[in-house]
Amino acid sequence: MPVRVVPVPALEDNYMYVVIDEETKQCGVIDPVDAAAIQTAAEREGATITAILTTHSHWDHAGGNVELKKRCASVEVVYGGVGDGVAGCTKELGDGDTFALGNSTVQVISTPCHTAGHICYLVDGNVFTGDTMFVSGCGNFNSGTPAQMAQAFQKLLALPDETKVWVGHEYTCKNCRFALFADPDNEEIQRRLKWAESCHSWTVPSTIGDEKRCNPFARLGSLPMFDNEPGGPAERMRLVRKAKDDWGRR
Ligand SMILES: [Zn+2]
């Protein structure tokens, strides 16, 4: 039986997720910054929270870990990336590690850059990308290099196109506006921006295939700004990040 994912918005634009193993009704929760809200959401689904899965140490992702563990006696483990300093972490994970969630298996994809120990979680065709990959966007490089982010994107983009992408923030409209600025003739992005602007709720999940078509950080090889421009993925990642930051300051 598959897992079922329930997104739960938090704070201004954060996403938390309840990931339910349907066979056992055990669930893991991703980045439960609002402990009360995620507990209510899990209860509404008839699921028991056994694990907290933290993508990275920033407060707006890990800030509810300790409270949720206090509130839910069923929580057995708090996962976080090696060396990331995640609040309340009881088990650190590295690239390729796996663990059980009910009868499902979760795999860890290490994506250091936004934080030094940022990780993504892959389970049953769903990837939880935290602040590494957004819908049509990318987290900032707080603790890493463009080469590291380029490598992180390469790992995520190697997943099957139909993999569902569940991101850490709802930034889709703004991201699509920059994506169109960087890739003006891309009709898929034009369509996506219209759709995102008309969405009155969330824009998750995306898919890896959609990100390949609509995310400038995933399209380093085909952006018009790089026509006749040499440079490998790391240099292009640096330049797209800089273009986005400059665009955001206009
Ligand atoms: Zn963050």
TrEMBL record:
Catalytic activity from the UniProt record: an S-(2-hydroxyacyl)glutathione + H2O = a 2-hydroxy carboxylate + glutathione + H(+)
Pathway(s) of this molecule: Secondary metabolite metabolism; methylglyoxal degradation; (R)-lactate from methylglyoxal: step 2/2
HAMAP family to which the protein is assigned, alphabetical: Glyoxalase_2
Domain (Metallo-beta-lactamase): residue spans on this chain: 13-169
Presence of the UniProt keyword Cell wall biogenesis/degradation in the record: no
Entry-linked SUPFAM superfamilies: Metallo-hydrolase/oxidoreductase
Keyword list, A-Z: Hydrolase, Metal-binding, Zinc
Protein name according to UniProt: hydroxyacylglutathione hydrolase
Entry cofactors: Zn(2+)
Xref: Pfam families: HAGH_C (PF16123), Lactamase_B (PF00753)
Top enzyme class: hydrolase
Record CDD domains: hydroxyacylglutathione_hydrolase_MBL-fold (cd07723)
